[in-house]
Amino acid sequence: MSDTQHVAITIADIEAAADLLAGVAVRTPLVESPALNMRTGGRILIKAETLQRTGSFKFRGAYNKISSLAPDTRANGILAWSSGNHAQGVAAAARLLASPAVIVMPRDAPATKIDNTRALGAEVVLYDRYTERREDIGARLAQERGLAIVRPYDDPHIIAGQGTVGLEIDEQCQRIGAEADVLLVNCSGGGLAAGCATAIAARSPATAIYSVEPEHYDDMARSLDSGDYETNAPGAPPSICDALMAQTPGTITFPIARELLSGGLSVTDAEVRRAVRFAFETLKLVVEPGGAASLAAVLSGRIETRGKTICLILSGGNVAPELFAEIITTRAATEEPG
Amino acid sequence: MSDTQHVAITIADIEAAADLLAGVAVRTPLVESPALNMRTGGRILIKAETLQRTGSFKFRGAYNKISSLAPDTRANGILAWSSGNHAQGVAAAARLLASPAVIVMPRDAPATKIDNTRALGAEVVLYDRYTERREDIGARLAQERGLAIVRPYDDPHIIAGQGTVGLEIDEQCQRIGAEADVLLVNCSGGGLAAGCATAIAARSPATAIYSVEPEHYDDMARSLDSGDYETNAPGAPPSICDALMAQTPGTITFPIARELLSGGLSVTDAEVRRAVRFAFETLKLVVEPGGAASLAAVLSGRIETRGKTICLILSGGNVAPELFAEIITTRAATEEPG
Q: Of B282, B283, B324, which has the smallest distance from its Cβ to A328's Cβ?
């Protein structure tokens, strides 16, 4: 179903994106929790990308992409489709770059996400996700109005922008004298994974890199196993990780991931809930379910942690208060205390 | 009611504490939120001490104090009284220093705080806060068992340990080229305020320092105004800031505060709730009510922010999940959206 596109993204592209983002994106901290280290028997370094503008890493790629447009294209405006983090990241980047933004969002997206996107100055076009395809609406609108499309992951500038997360992780590890054995990256379409893998492979080639996805949405893991594009089974129950539900890896991101990743992990909704609660109780960080997948992998023993230095990215914190409240006040009967 | 004790605490004491804490305490990040800057019209630098061991700054002073004890005293054990953050900070520090810890806690303290303190290896002695005074029980137990008392704030080693927060703030400001016009410090007995004021007065003398307290518990603000120890009115309604309910400034902390602080601010429970919710929604940080007092002062216009660089400390994140859930899902009718 997908044509592979071999688009080379180099460490130089990521360094250029980092220069562009300096002083604009938040240089998010790499934090460490003695309690988490003790619990896992390893050294876990947490890139808190939840503290990025608009609460997720998505701002980085969006700003890098929109900056790359020719001045008149940018002034004419851009268009994106997203039900969540990409929408807000694009809207914020477009506003900073004085580019009018149109965001195509499903009519039943959470009201707060629609409101936030509008508050960032974007025009929101709603569609019915059961009868219409957002790509079709987006492409038609973009053509009618002459807008440049800002894709969520399958674009070299987007990937290079997200890769600055990996570059910062490497710099921050060096400053504290840490050498990462493993980097875990939450994965939907693979933009963050491909970008960070490119950065880390260049700067810290001994680090093994794994994608982390929700159960039933582990298309990247299965694609890495088979070496070709795998798609999630139709009719799978929705995951609590609404940000990680892409159906198949991207045509630009997958060739990069196939070359640079050691494999893919997956986590259950129950493991993700426990990780969100752990982040609240112990790390004191607000993480959305999809943003906590790698933390869930570490807490659930999906990867060996004892004696290892493991970097993970908390990739987003945009969670509805009602869901967050439910997660932190509910402890499954099967769970151990604490 | 209180005898003033002029105990000199110097920047050298704080630097010594910082050396001792290096590699033991978390060097918590100084974070910045473009959304908060835009909202306030200033540059707000947030010291996320919520990310400290045991979720508050209290570990710093406790570790510095217990380290200062003679080896046989330390081996014999220590005693502290606290219903919350000091209990956990002392228990964690005592365990690292192999000092048996006895913590006197009210019988009706939140079960999670008692459990956490026990999980950190401390012996918890419960008392009835309506019929017994914890200072009396603590002093009696300490004498019977020959335990060293680790006071919550009125101790030079405690104050110097908490002062390392101020030292780090100054170092982190310098690294990003920021000069703070104002430092806001949440205040109960005044250990954090006295320590940070000593550090900042030495390193950044142009910075004005203010304490922040809850409404009805603004004994420090009124004491700074009058120049003598003021006490909170009996029968005041309890504050949502359970960590900030001291009745009068400390006998060691107040002379320092009187010399170095520009004044004291106070915030209402409603302002604190809004700050906790803002930290959840926008900063993606978990803050307990008492830890959010300074953020509340900034968000509520209790201090001029426009064009100013203001540092504030999120001093603790130990909040019961049920209360946090209630705060983030409830928006008062009088509040503006967002």
A: B324
Q: Do B285 and A285 touch (CB under 8 A)?
A: yes
**Distance, CA of A117 to CA of A88 (rounded, Å):** 5
Q: Is B119 on the interface with A (CB under 8 A)?
A: yes
**pLDDT on residue A268:** 98
Examine the pLDDT at B83 and tell me if it is beyond 80. no
Across B253-257, average pLDDT: 98
A252: phi > 0 → left, psi -120 to 50 → alpha, else beta; which?
Answer: alpha
Task: Answer whether A135's CB lies under 8 Å from A154's CB.
Answer: no
Query: Which of B284, B313, B335 would you mutate first to test chain A, the one with the most A CBs within 10 A?
Result: B284
For A217-227, how does the pLDDT look when each residue is reduced to its tens digit (9 = 90+)? 999 999 999 99
* Interchain CB distance below 8 Å, A31 and B51: yes
Interhelix angle B11-21/B58-68, rounded to 10 degrees, is: 90
CB contact B175 to A (< 8 Å): no
Assign domain B11-57+155-329 one CATH number from 3.30.540.10, 3.40.50.1820, 3.40.50.1100, 3.40.50.2000: 3.40.50.1100
The alpha-carbon gap from A317 to the nearest alpha carbon of chain B, in Å, equals: 6
CB B88 within 8 A of CB B117: yes
Q: What is the pLDDT of residues B178-226, one digit of tens each?
A: 999 999 999 999 999 999 999 999 999 999 999 999 999 999 999 999 9
Top CATH class of A11-56+155-329 equals: alpha beta
Residue A176 in contact with partner chain B when CB distance is under 8 A: no
The reply to whether CATH 3.40.50.1100 applies to domain B58-149 is: yes
Residue spans in chain A of domains classed CATH 3.40.50.1100: 11-56+155-329, 58-149
Alpha carbon of B130: minimum distance to chain A alpha carbons (Å):
29
Distance CA B269, CA B249 (A): 21
Question: What ipTM goes with this model?
Answer: 0.95
Q: What is the pLDDT of residue A1?
A: 43
